[in-house]
Write a structure and sequence with these properties.
Number of domains: 4
Helix content: 25-40%
CATH superfamily of the largest domain: B family DNA polymerase, palm domain
Number of strands: 27
CATH architecture of the largest domain: Alpha-Beta Complex
CATH class of the largest domain: Alpha Beta
Strand content: 15-25%
Oligomer: single chain
């Protein structure tokens, strides 16, 4: 294995470390002879030995044959060959070798260690830090940033679909603009910058799909090698893009361009970095033992699975090659009983004052840890008295589950970081916040993966047990609250919105303490709202929607869910207008003040409509973003995303299901589909927009926040739009 080290002086070193990854095989007493015969044609150096390991579901120790492969590159070929041999059961054989190396060696990204070398070969590595350390030191990274110069491109547009502009490269305040008109000089300029600063990290925007491929093409045209890698003998490691279905929607994941000796991180192609920045990404990489470039381009679910795999190997638990625990048969009545999900109360539509919100802290992962819920602990026969409420599954209390073992540390770690965040300021506070945010997403994902059919340690019965406990805990909390005179306005899985005349923050805190004592789960007061509005459904007037509300707390912080300002497909013009309306509304301490401020709130809508009619809005403010649900050629109707996709396709853009497309509505009633919308990246200088279409978006967004105050869409058209006037196309 090739390892890159940074010494105390910040100098990088490349060393090789001997490694023979291991897999395990069980079978009859002739298994060893069968294995050796099957692998002989591969002519690979192997070592075999007897070992005792634990079987995951039963917890029993079994005899297995350990096979060490002395060429890590041949490890997958050995697994494939053994998989075709009848009568053998394989374990630990389909884990990516880089991760398996980290699990088995005890190393992890950014470990502090002492290395003894013989030339460039590491003979011994002594660990001086642990992956679960709460405080740790990081080397001072040198970061090179690469992005498109927005002044020469289309601001905010996807460069995969059109104009790209020049490339800016910057390190420590020095910026170089690479002009593609002279490929040789561009490559030399970038190489000089890399040589001068020797960056540890290349931080890019659109690097995986556009920037890095473009730079490599530029270098090929110039005939000059591009010094992206610290290892001059290695190339760029590539991974193709893909589209896949998850939770009922199609998602596009960009490809990858990964380097050797330094990291390439693409801000546009990393969920974890996008949510928690570098500090959060590195904290998860240490815990999950996944190489940083790889983790940046994967999900928090993969990180959780990796933590579980590492724990299993540390505990001597065998990891099956193929998941072998299918869902047990259930009758229709059993399905109705067990497959209910979380408990949701339909909110009471309206505006309310003095409402307290109580939230269970990381409810699902906490229950998984507290109640020992794991695939191997559900349905045990040794603990008949330990049952899941309502559904009657038993939960083992005699052995610690693999999933709870992993979650306990994550929960404690996040509590520590949140506490340190409150105690610190400035850059230090930001680091702790990034770390706790990354852990939050890992904890959120842990429950979903418990019921995911392809998860290594997923089992639907364990998933059902968690939701059953959650329903029971929320019901207990509801009963306690109502016994203390509180009225429940809304409840959603792990949160409650309560109201009692005259109740203060102290009253809600006392209730939270009582609920925590009764349930054994920490519940805290998210806050007391000065006022909150539970909004109705757009399609069923008067019917509340569980996750659609807006409100302002007594400390002036706000909370908004399920409306235009929170949606990614809404034009900036609409989003900013609704945000301004909300901020004016949130300045009101009471509902009476809110009603008195209505003329000012309506004036914001009117002002935006006037700007729209006068043609004073920019193209960037009007961009609508939609995601493709299928291949371009599969669209049969002229939807706006289909028209946009076909136009981009004709101009050479390579589009994929799940990918976002951006467009301007030019004339939604035009007879020719191509005249209805225009891709943002192909806008040109002669563009126009459909003012009526955007006005309708603005009025509907206004109705969203004002409907509870008596302003329907029809009333807004009558009172506001009439004063502005009806327009045709503006330019």
């Amino acid at each position: 294995m090739v390892l890159w080290l940074i010494d105390r002086d910040g100098r990088p070193h490349r060393v090789r470390y001997p490694y023979a990854p291991s897999m395990y095989v069980s079978g009859d007493r002739h298994a060893r002879g069968v294995v050796e015969a099957a692998l002989q044609p591969l002519a690979i150096r192997l070592s075999t030995s007897r070992a005792v390991r634990k079987e995951l579901m039963s917890g029993e120790e079994i005899d297995v044959l350990r096979i060490a492969v002395h060429n890590p590159l041949a490890y997958p070929a050995v697994a494939r060959r053994l998989a075709r041999v009848p009568g053998l059961t394989l374990y630990n054989c389909d884990i990516p070798v880089a991760r398996l190396f980290l699990y088995e060696s005890g190393l992890f990204p950014l470990v502090r260690c002492a290395v003894s070398c013989d030339g460039d070969v590491a003979r011994e590595i002594a660990l001086e830090s642990r992956s679960d350390d709460l405080e740790y030191e990081l080397p001072p990274f040198v970061v090179l940033r690469l992005r498109f110069d927005h002044e020469t491109g289309t601001d905010g547009a996807n460069p995969m679909h059109g104009r790209r502009g020049r490339i800016e490269a910057g390190v420590d305040g020095e910026t170089v603009v690479l002009d593609g008109d002279d490929p040789a000089e561009s490559v030399r300029s970038l190489n000089r910058l890399i040589e001068r600063y020797d960056p540890d990290v290349l931080l890019t925007e659109w690097g995986d799909e556009v920037l890095m491929p473009g730079l490599r093409t530029l270098a090929a045209r110039a005939g000059i090698p591009l010094a992206l890698n610290r290892d001059p003998t290695a190339g760029v490691r590539l991974r193709r893009s893909r589209s896949y279905m998850t939770y009922g929607k199609v998602v596009f994941q960009g490809g990858a361009q990964m380097l050797h000796g330094r990291w390439h991180l693409d801000l546009r192609n990393s969920f974890i970095y996008g949510e928690s920045e570098l500090a959060g990404l590195l904290d998860v990489a240490r815990l999950a033992r996944i190489p940083v470039q790889e983790l940046a381009r994967t999900s928090t679910g993969t990180a959780i699975s990796s933590m579980q795999l590492n724990q299993a190997i540390a505990d001597g638990v065998l990891i099956p090659w193929q998941k072998s625990e299918p869902e047990a048969f259930k009758t229709a009545s059993q399905l109705l009983l067990t497959d209910k999900g979380g408990l949701t109360y339909q909110p009471i539509v309206g505006l309310f004052e003095g409402v307290g919100e109580l939230d269970f802290s990381s409810m699902y992962p906490t229950m998984m840890a507290n109640f020992n819920i794991s695939p191997e602990t559900i349905g045990c026969t040794c603990c008949p008295d330990s049952q899941v409420p309502e559904i009657g599954y038993t939960v083992c209390q005699k052995r610690k589950g693999l999933v709870p073992h992993v979650l306990e540390h994550l929960l404690e770690r996040r509590v520590y970081y949140k506490k340190r965040k409150q105690e610190t300021t400035g850059d230090e506070r930001a680091v702790y916040d990034q770390r706790q945010t990354a852990l939050k997403w890992c904890l959120v994902t842990s429950f979903g993966y418990l019921g995911y059919r392809n998860a290594r340690f997923g089992r639907i019965e364990a998933h059902e047990a968690v939701t059953a406990f959650a329903r029971e805990m929320l019901l207990r909390a509801k009963e306690i609250a109502e016994a203390r005179g509180f009225r429940m306005l809304h409840a959603l899985v792990d949160s409650m919105w309560l109201q009692r005349p005259g109740a203060t923050r102290n009253d809600y805190e006392a209730l939270a303490h009582e609920v925590t004592t009764a349930t054994g789960l920490q519940i805290f007061v998210e806050g007391v709202y000065r006022w909150i509005g539970f909004l109705p459904s757009k399609t069923h007037r008067g019917v509340g929607v569980p996750n659609r509300y807006m409100g302002v707390f007594e400390d002036n912080s706000t909370k908004v869910r399920g409306i235009e300002v929170r949606r990614a497909d809404v034009p900036i013009l609409v989003e900013e207008m609704q945000e301004r309306m909300l901020q004016r509304m949130f300045h009101c301490a009471t509902l009476d003040e809110l009603r008195a401020a209505l003329p000012e709130v309506l004036a914001i809508l009117e002002e935006t409509l006037v700007r729209l009619r006068a043609g004073e809005v920019t193209a960037a403010e009007l961009v609508v973003t939609n995601r493709l649900s299928q291949e371009v050629g599969e669209y049969r109707h002229n939807t706006v995303q289909a028209i946009t996709a076909r136009t981009l396709d004709r101009h050479g853009a390579r589009l994929h299901p799940g990918e976002a497309v951006q467009f301007i509505i030019t004339n939604r009633k035009a007879k020719l589909p191509e005249d209805r919308v225009r891709p943002y990246t192909l806008l040109g200088t002669d563009w126009s927009y459909d003012a009526d279409a955007y006005a309708q978006m603005l009025v509907r967004a206004g109705e969203t926040v004002l409907e509870l105050l008596g302003y329907s869409e029809q009333r807004l058209w009558q009172e506001v739009w009439k004063r502005v006037g009806v327009s045709g196309d503006a330019g």
